Amino acid sequence: MNIAFFLIPKKDIVYLKEGATMRQALERMEYHSYSAVPLINGEGKYAGTITEGDLLWKLKNTPGLTFENTEDIFLSSVEQHVQNVPVTIDAQMEDLISRAVVQNFVPVVDDQQTFIGIVRRREMIEYCSKLLLQQKA
Questions:
Q1: pLDDT tens, 83-103?
Q2: Calpha distance 39→20 (Å, rounded)
Q3: Backbone φ and ψ of 110, nearest 5°
Q4: N-term to C-term CA, the chain
Q5: Is domain 3-136 annotated with CATH 3.10.580.10?
Q6: C-beta neighbour count of 103 within 10 angstroms
Q7: CA distances, 53 to each of 2, 59, 65, 118, 134 (Å)
Q8: In whole angstroms, what is the distance from residue 47 CA to residue 42 CA?
Q9: Are 82 and 103 in contact (CB under 8 A)?
Q10: Among 36, 37, 54, 107, which residue's CB has the most CB atoms within a 10 Å radius?
Q11: What is the pTM of this model?
Q12: Phi/psi at 106 (nearest 5 deg)?
């Protein structure tokens, strides 16, 4: 099955640009109750996934950094501790499932590596569950 069926397009998800600040990331993640969001560079390419853990480690390891001055720290300077590798739009379900074991969503890019959306783990689990139920019937 083609993963385009599961794709949630970029326009319908929460993502951040590398030029955003830690403060913006913290506030957006809190508002949406997300622990991780895709990060996009100035050319629209997938630049990684920023997580709550990344932000906490930056806060812990930067002397003098407090919540109040996180508006001075750009996400491009925050180290990403987990590398969520994207798939291309023509990837197969097997590619998604292997990545979904360790990440809540899988970023999807086109042939030019431009970020086009995500596939959430929830939809993959629902798909696999339906297949298992069909096999039992």
A1: 888 999 988 888 888 888 888
A2: 9
A3: -90, -170
A4: 21
A5: yes
A6: 18
A7: 32, 10, 15, 20, 39
A8: 9
A9: yes
A10: 107
A11: 0.86
A12: -115, 120
